[in-house]
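Quarterly update from the structural biology core.
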Amino acid sequence: MDDRPEGPGDDERFLVVDGRRWRREDPDLPADVRGTLLSHLGRGRSAVGRARRSADDAAVARARRRVDLAKHGLGERGDPWWEQSATARRRRWEHALAELAALDVDEDAAPDDAGSPDGA
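Predicted structure, tokenized:
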């Protein structure tokens, strides 16, 4: 007898690409939340590439943080979404969205000319 809890099977939990198993995103994400998180994921991945090409370690770290937050929000990282209550799942994506919004505010608040004390 299988001792695993009732719920989605492995084919609904994981995706296999080139023999490697990846966790699928939470299927209960609202469409707007999913779209926003995927947008952040794409922005983060692009920023990682740009930062690596420019050898900017601080920018790589910031971009990887965006990717990590988006993946947590999507349910691809952290506690498995199929083991969480509906409330915990909602808290997970709401927390990720809040943290991602804070990253955007931090980026928008950064002065254009960091070398000048007055930003001019």
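The two ends are 70 Å apart (CA to CA).
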